[in-house]
Design brief:
Layout lengths: L1 H15 L7 E4 L9 H11 L4 E4 L3 E4 L3 E12 L2 E4 L3 H5 L5 E4 L4 E3 L1 E11 L5 E3 L2 H7 L12 E2 L1 E17 L6 E4 L2 E11 L19 E4 L1 E12 L3 E5 L3 E12 L3 E7 L6 E15 L11 E8 L15 E17 L1 E9 L10 E15 L5 E4 L6 E9 L17 H13 L3 E2 L12 E2 H26 L7 E8 L2 E8 L2 E8 L2 E7 L2 H12 L17 E2 L7
Parallel strand pairs: 1-2, 2-4, 3-5, 4-8, 5-9, 7-10, 8-11, 9-11, 11-12, 11-13, 12-14, 13-15, 14-16, 15-17, 16-18, 17-19, 18-20, 19-21, 20-22, 21-23, 22-24, 23-25
Antiparallel strand pairs: 6-7, 26-28, 27-32, 28-29, 29-30, 30-31
Protein name: galacturonan 1,4-alpha-galacturonidase
Keywords: Carbohydrate metabolism, Cell wall biogenesis/degradation, Disulfide bond, Glycoprotein, Glycosidase, Hydrolase, Membrane, Polysaccharide degradation, Secreted, Signal, Transmembrane, Transmembrane helix
EC number: 3.2.1.67
Length: 550
């Protein structure tokens, strides 16, 4: 498989680096405060077919959506395309392209065409001005994309090369390639790093994926360096013959195969993927607190949420012939997760999506949790022919145990209740017996500390600065689960529920703790809390909420 992909790659590079001679267009930035959009588009219109366009060093201010249609052409981008942070303008759907079908994501810059090369010479690329966007969405609810634009979208392109490109501060995904064939990315840097000290230690840069591949074939990624708050690479549906080599992921969620099966009536296929020389490294937590996974696979099995869906699905398909080789992990939370039941709820049909022929070779490094590999497989599809060779992940604190789980339906329901829907609640003794007063010190220290402190900072900011709630904020209860971190707390004579779930802030107000309990039981779907079992977690040793006031 690898040999055939490399032959396709070589033919792509040869065809894209031998363009015929034609007109040359050379432009320079107009200057501070000037709009460069027209001159950039005019140069591409004149020289984008059979010609050569040169954007000299400097900052090009881009104020509206832009398409480069390139055929048998070359672009030398020495400068930076500066997309001005007019947030409300870009959030208006008429001001972006909606060419990426999945979740109808927005794009402000689209490259299309055939037989082209774009070289940014390690000096040029895109300035996304993401900081104002990230600040904005700390107090404004978001639902998946919500119109935040992808920085660079390659759409319906054939035989293209993008070299030595940098994207700084993307509001949303750095890259997306959709409905394209035989495209090579050689040298890509993406940096989504919060610089606002008010949010130090928090992940306010969610959804800043390095790239999402979708409905594309023969796509190659070489020499990438991604600092992200989400997926470093995301291989989505109908991505085939994919090569990724020499990839460094700094923070975020790691490399994802998914989401898959998000549309119930569509089939998602991922086939023939080869990745090697991958590094996942945890960075300074004041910049990015997360480093969740090495490589993980997920398909949806749940009630569809929203249109277009931002969750759920239950669609069919398969992922097969995937190799990840020479992987080094630095303090990731979990090296590998494979789940066919992402976001599953009681009553959902078993997932029809299949993972098979997955091969993990020569893995090393450290992880922070005691699961080396976690598999959650559906009885309707199963996980087959998954191999691990030289898979060595010493735990950062103690010896790692291999954990393999293949769920039948009854066990799966129990696992959902225990880990996915509601985990262990912790509160005062006046509440039901399946609640606890203990803060688990091991959880706080080794897994949830950054999430918890992140939650405290967000709550403080929201209530004291944004909503101006008087008085001291007192935490009363908390819950941790695979889905997020939840708090019940008192402020200004009222009780509030706050959740950091899927990196989205929600809050609800209650007149009393009992009203909160009633709400939780209703959400649980049982009258007595039977779906909220008292999970036994090793206590090492107990702690209280004293850290809250530190």
């Amino acid at each position: 498989m690898l040999g055939s992909v490399i032959l396709l790659l070589l033919s792509t590079i040869v065809s894209c680096t031998g363009q015929s001679s034609g007109p040359t267009c050379t432009i320079s930035p107009l200057g501070v405060g000037r709009d460069d959009t027209n001159q950039v588009l005019n140069a591409i219109a004149k020289c984008g077919h059979g010609g050569h366009t040169v954007l000299q060093d400097g900052v090009y201010n881009i104020t509206r959506k832009m398409t480069w249609d390139l055929v048998n052409a070359k672009v030398d981008l020495h400068g930076s395309l500066n997309f001005v942070p007019n947030i409300q303008f870009w959030l208006n759907a008429t001001n972006t392209y909606r060419v990426v079908f999945i979740q109808s994501q927005a794009s402000w810059f689209v490259i299309t065409g055939s037989d082209f090369e774009i070289d940014a010479h390690n000096t040029g690329g895109i300035q996304g001005n993401g900081q104002p966007w990230w600040n904005f969405f700390t107090t404004t609810p978001r639902a998946d994309g919500d119109g935040r634009p992808i920085s660079l979208t390659v759409f319906q392109a054939v035989r293209g090369v993008i070299r030595n490109f940098a994207i700084d501060a993307p509001p949303f995904w750095c890259n997306c390639i959709a409905e394209s064939q035989s495209v090579v990315y050689d040298g890509m840097k993406c940096n989504a790093s919060n610089t606002n000290p008010a949010f130090a230690g928090q992940n306010i840069v969610p959804n800043t994926d390095g790239i999402d591949t979708y409905r594309s074939d023969n796509i190659s990624m070489f020499n990438w360096d991604i600092t992200s708050g989400d997926d470093c690479l995301a291989i989505k549906g109908n991505s085939t013959n994919i090569v990724a080599q020499n990839i460094t992921c700094r923070g975020g969620n790691g490399i994802a195969f998914g989401s898959l099966g998000q549309y119930a009536n569509l089939t998602d296929i991922v086939e023939n993927v080869f990745m090697e020389n991958l590094t996942m490294t945890r960075i300074n937590s004041t910049i990015q607190p997360n480093m969740q996974n090495g490589v993980y696979f997920k398909s949806w099995d749940a009630t569809i949420n929203g249109a277009p869906p931002t969750g759920g699905g239950g669609g069919g398909g398969f992922t097969t012939n995937v190799t990840t080789r020479n992987v080094v992990l630095d303090r990731v939370n979990r090296p590998t997760t494979i789940t066919q039941t992402n976001d599953a709820q009681s009553g959902d049909l078993p997932s029809k999506y299949k993972f098979e022929n997955l091969h993990f070779e020569n893995w090393s490094g450290t992880s922070l949790t005691n699961e080396l590999v976690a598999l959650t497989c559906s009885p309707a599809a199963n996980c087959t022919n998954i191999t691990f060779v030289d898979f060595n992940q010493p735990h950062s604190v103690s010896v790692v145990r291999n954990i393999f789980k293949t769920m039948d339906e009854e066990v799966l329901r129990e696992e959902r209740a225990r880990k996915t829907i509601y985990a262990d609640w912790h509160t005062d003794s006046t509440l039901p017996k399946y609640w606890s007063t203990d803060w688990n010190e091991w959880e706080l220290t080794h897994f949830w500390e950054e999430r918890a402190l992140d939650g405290k900072l967000k709550i403080d900011k929201l209530f004291k600065e944004t909503w101006q709630v008087p008085g001291t904020i007192k935490p009363l209860a908390y819950m941790v689960s695979t889905g997020g971190l939840y708090f019940l707390f008192a402020a200004g004579g009222r009780y509030y529920f706050w959740a950091d779930r899927q990196l989205t802030i929600h809050s609800m107000e209650f007149a009393s703790p009992q009203e909160f309990v009633d709400y939780a039981l209703k959400a649980d779907g049982s009258e007595d809390g039977s779906h909220m079992p008292d999970v036994e977690i090793q206590q090492i040793p107990d702690a209280d909420f004293s850290w809250w006031s530190n």
